[in-house]
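Hey L., structure's done. Input below.
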Amino acid sequence: MFHTYEGINYIYILIPIFMLHYLEQPLLSTLQAMNKAKINMIISLINMIIRTIGLIILCNFKIGMLSLLITLSLNIIFTCFYSYNKINKIIKKLSYN
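Output:
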């Protein structure tokens, strides 16, 4: 439409991250279904802190849109792995009882 290909570099960066993004919501929903809404709230709070601090730090490097992409990527990676870790701990605790 605009005859520009500047955004394709951002898409290449985000492809592996958005594979994790599709897993993020089911993991959070699983925690909710296990009656662990407090953990979801803590994850949300930590995400906001990571996003804010990441944007403040990376915007000082004057790298433009890439600072937003890096912060978004860190946020998604943290959420997926932290949620997965918490679900595993809960399942292991339930299986030992």
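The CA atoms of residues 3 and 27 lie 39 Å apart. The helical segments are 8-33, 37-59, 65-96.

-- N.
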